[in-house]
Amino acid sequence: MNFEKWLKMNTSDLSGKTIAVTGTTGGLGTELCKFLCELNADLVLLDRNSQKSANFQKELQILYPDCKITRIKVDLEDINSVKIAVRTLKNLPLDMFIHNAGAYSIPRHKSSAGFDNVFQINFVSPYYMIRELMPHLKERCGHVVAVGSIAHNYSKTDPDDTDFSTRTASSKVYGNAKRYLMFSLYELFKGETDVTLSVVHPGITFTNITAHYPKVIFAVIKHPMKVIFMKPKKAALCILKGAFRSTAYHQWIGPRIFNVWGLPKLKRLKTCSRPESSSIGQAAQKIYEDLK
To answer: Closest by alpha carbon to 76, among 109, 52, 44, 103?
Structure first.
């Protein structure tokens, strides 16, 4: 694929723009940041592992010496860490916030805020960050990009088990958190004009988040996965597209073929009813207020 040609046709220069990205040391985040640097953006790397983040910063600065890069440590499982990171972000001239980080099949426990940790990482913390940063982004006519997932359609929400703490299937637990993230943001940004939203998804690609199978099984399937599914560099284009195009209520940007392969395409979502979406928005509002 001719990435240079795609960038020329679908993006523009980002000189003078400061963009914060969560989860930059994984496959998608790494490729996304390289694209953003190529477009002359200044970056804020938001990562849990400080050493990996520092190493990635050095790599970027070798490749793109004119790119200004700042690092902020944040553990999305820890709401206090999130609040500290948000306070730091508010002191920066932030033009865009891209939430890319995620956790799929990890050891389950309650976070310090009282939620299942998968729900905390994939929904509660990023929603809190976006809510807190919205006034700051409005001042700069800013933009938010949130990475969703096709897993959001694996089950409907359950008001009696909001964080799916009683469920055991990783796909449903993760999917529920992504469902909350996506549709709470649709409700939050409904009618908003001073700051815009893009909900995107990369389809299925070979990254750390897919390396959750038992070692023996993973050793067998990892090579076919690399052949069958898009490589992270191509999959990251769906996120990058979201940096330049907003999505309307219940729209998202993802691979054009079965939401799994191909270049980015804007699509209408029919996977969540308006009443359920509204209910998710109300639940998200309460969670946010309780965390304040």
So the answer is: 103
